[in-house]
Amino acid sequence: MLTNGFEDAPLVAGQELLALPGFWAAYLMWLSQTEEYDPVPEWFGVDGADADAAWDALSDENRWPVFQIPFAGGHTAVVLGYNLPDDPGTEYFITHPEWERHGHLATVGGHHAGPGLSWRELTHIARTPDHNAPGVHAEHARLLLLLPTLGDQDMPEEAADVVGDALARAGVPAALASGLAEALLADHPLWEPAEWTLPAASPLSGSQEPFPGILHCDEPMSPRCGVRLAQGITREQSDRLAHALGTWPAT
User: Fold this and answer.
1) Minimal CA–CA distance to 35: which of 187, 179, 177, 148?
2) Which of 146, 162, 192, 204 has its CA 20 to 30 A from that of 169?
C-alpha cells in the first residue's frame, strides 16, 4: 500500500483491526478523558486485555495501519498511524487521484494540529460512502474513525445521540454509549472548538486563501486556518471537494 509521503513506510490496510473487541477503546480512549475521570476500557464495554491487544496492533512499529474512508467524487479521507519508535502519532488527510498533494486535516501526536473537520463535514463524509472504492463503508465506523479531528463550537443538540448510536453500532453496550458519547464530545484534549465559516470570494486568485465553498477554520492550530484544504488544486477541483464535503452549494 502506497500513500504519498509515506512510500517507504510499512503501511498495511487497517480495516481488519476494526473487528478486534478492544479496537474502539484503544483508538478513542484518550479522547474520552474528562476533567473528572480518566477513561478505562470498561467505558467501552471491554476489558483491559482486549484493549491492550488492540493497542499493540494499532501501534506496531512494523505495520502502520491505514484506514481509507472513500466518499463522493473520488475523494478519500485517510487515517494513518505513523508508528515511529520515538514520535508516534496519527495523521488525518484527504486524497484524490487528481491531486499532487493530500489535504491535511489534523495530526494527533507530538506535533498535534487541529481541528480538521466541522460537525457538518464529519457527518456528511460518514453518510456518503463510495461503495465502488476500497475502504471502510459502515457509517458508524467512518464517523468514529474521523471523530478525533472534530472541533466545532456550533454543535447541534442531536450530536451526542448521533455519536451514541455510532458507538452502540460499534458494539458498545447501550447502557454505556450515551455517557461515553458525552465524554467524547466534551473538551478536546488537544485543541479548542473552532468557528467554521464560508469565506467570501477573493480577487487574490493566486493566494492561499480558501476558495469559496470550502469552510474556513478560525482556530490557529488548525491546518485549515487561512489556507486551502488541499494545496495546488484548481477551482473546479475545489468546487467538487466542497460538494463532496456537503458545504457547496451553500444552503
Assistant:
1) 187
2) 192
Grid coordinates 478486534 are at which residue? 20
**Residue 150 to residues 4, 147, 200, 229, 249, Cα–Cα distance (Å):** 24, 5, 23, 15, 22
Contacts of the segment 78-87: beta carbons below 8 A, 24+ positions apart: 78/3, 78/102, 79/14, 79/145, 79/146, 80/3, 80/6, 80/11, 81/14, 82/6, 82/9, 82/109, 83/59, 85/61
Give the mean model confidence (pLDDT) for residues 49-74.
Answer: 97
What's the pLDDT band for 1 if we cut at 50, 70, 90? low
Mean pLDDT rounded to a whole number for the chain: 92
Of 150, 96, 92, residue with least CA distance to 121: 150
Model confidence, pTM: 0.94
Domain boundaries, the chain: 11-245
